[in-house]
Amino acid sequence: MNIIVTGGAGFIGGNFMHYMVSKYSNDKIICIDCLTYAGNMETLSPLENKKNYKFIKEDIRNRDNIYKIFEEEKPDIIVNFAAESHVDRSVENPSIFLETNIIGTSVLLDACKKYGIKRFHQVSTDEVYGDLPLDRKDLFFVEDTPLHTSSPYSSSKAAADLLTLAYHRTFKLPVTISRCSNNYGPYHFPEKLIPLIISRALNNEELPVYGKGENIRDWLYVEDHCVAIDLIIRNGKVGEIYNIGGHNEKTNLEVVKTILKELGKSDSLIKFVQDRPGHDLRYAINPEKIQKELAWIPQYNFETGIKKTIKWYLENKTWWEHIVSGEYKNYFNKMYSYRM
Ligand code: NAD
Ligand code: TDX
Question: How far is the CA of 215 from the centre of ligand 2 (A)?
């Protein structure tokens, strides 16, 4: 099979590329990525000599070129990770989120409709459901929880989900959608909480925690997400949505303190800063559907996953040091100067 992975030079897409290239030597795994600030060829460099791997630098918004790629590569399956993914950036500049996440997805859907495919899989997020209250631990997101987005990022992802479902209903396109909780693991860009805290703590820098650090996220080790997507594209039911999560709810403060303890650093590095506007309170996934229908079971809990992640950041300092020493410095100053 020919499998196109868009956004494969990013965090989750990159991990998925590694997973698929090593698991399926008889399939051709083709990454399409336009290499925004979040795309990184160093993430894909271990795959360079693999026969079943190909990289194409392209923007999913470029209709003509995407059509050409479909003509040449004749993909059977498309897994769409390509997106603007950082909530804080969407507060600063919403329009690129609408262009990539909605228009980009629509170009891919049109290409699938024009050339015919076996499956289009849209990688979505639990953020499309909005948030849950902090004091209702009995509530979880299920697949038919109403969409109730908070940020320009999550709104753009919800729009892409609706468009994907519309192409299934109207044009009978064979689609699936997955909505996963917060991922963490290797190759995670250090604008996001966990890699930001690890990299800054290692450099003995202040650690910005929004508000009181009480917001709750449901963390999943990235490899478990990759396994789930692989199961969905092979065995998932067309037209269906699958929630993915492993019941690893933690407050942000718990996450930061766990990392500091693992690294042997002091809690005094923590600095409580101005909150994120519209900050979602709690995310929590009910994963029963994917567990029952596809027998998916996560291999990592937060305790084992965070140890593995920290080990990776310690052993791969050049990967993240290249990032934090470059343009990222301007990003950090711009986004945090008014907060800290
Ligand atoms: P990321 O920001 O690390 O990577 C995004 C990738 O997409 C980058 O390589 C970037 O270069 C590429 N890209 C962006 N715009 C593009 C365009 N127009 N054309 C081609 N490529 C483009 O993102 P991530 O954290 O790996 O997230 C991947 C997907 O998973 C996203 O769709 C996101 O919404 C979803 N998701 C993320 C999480 C999480 O915790 N990070 C959780 C659930 C779902
Ligand atoms: O400096 C920080 N301090 C802080 O307290 C940052 C960057 C974040 N936070 C808080 C905000 C959130 O409550 O930590 C939590 C996690 O923040 P992010 O890493 O920005 O992730 P989140 O906003 O939860 O969104 C992530 O999960 C769902 C991904 O970035 C999305 O792409 C995915 O859809």
Answer: 10
Query: Strand runs (DSSP E) across the chain, as ranges?
Result: 2-6, 28-33, 53-57, 77-80, 119-125, 175-180, 182-184, 207-210, 216-221, 241-244, 249-251, 270-273
Is the distance from the beta carbon of residue 182 to the nearest atom of ligand 2 less than 6 Å? yes
Q: Which token pair is 196? A: 């930001």
Distance of CA 295 to the CA centre of its chain: 22
Is pLDDT above 90 for 126?
Answer: yes
Collapsed DSSP state (helix, strand, coil) of residue 58: coil
CB 250 less than 6 A from any atom of ligand 2? no
pLDDT in tens, 43-66: 999 999 999 999 999 999 999 999
Residues in the chain: 340
Please tell me the distance between residue 15's alpha carbon and the centre of ligand 1 in angstroms: 12
Residues contacting 40, CB < 8 A, separation 6+: 9, 10, 14, 187, 189, 319, 323
Burial class of residue 302 (count of CB atoms within 10 Å of its CB; 0-12, 13-18, 19+): buried
Q: Which two tokens stand for residue 129?
A: 């459901």
* 292 CB-contact burial (10 Å; exposed 0-12 / middle 13-18 / buried 19+): exposed
Q: What is the 3-state secondary structure (H, E, C) of 170-218?
A: HHCCCEEEEEECEEECCCCCCCCHHHHHHHHHHCCCCEEEECCCCCEEE
- DSSP, residue by residue, 287-323: -HHHHHHH----S--HHHHHHHHHHHHHHTHHHHHHH
* Single-letter amino acid code for the residue at 133: P
Q: CA–CA separation, 83 vs 268, rounded Å? A: 35
Ligand 2, atom nearest to 197 Cα: 1
* Model confidence pLDDT, tens digit, residues 208-267: 999 999 999 999 999 999 999 999 999 999 999 999 999 999 999 999 999 999 999 999
CB 181 within 8 Å of CB 175: no
Task: Report whether 229 contacts 121 (CB < 8 A).
Answer: yes
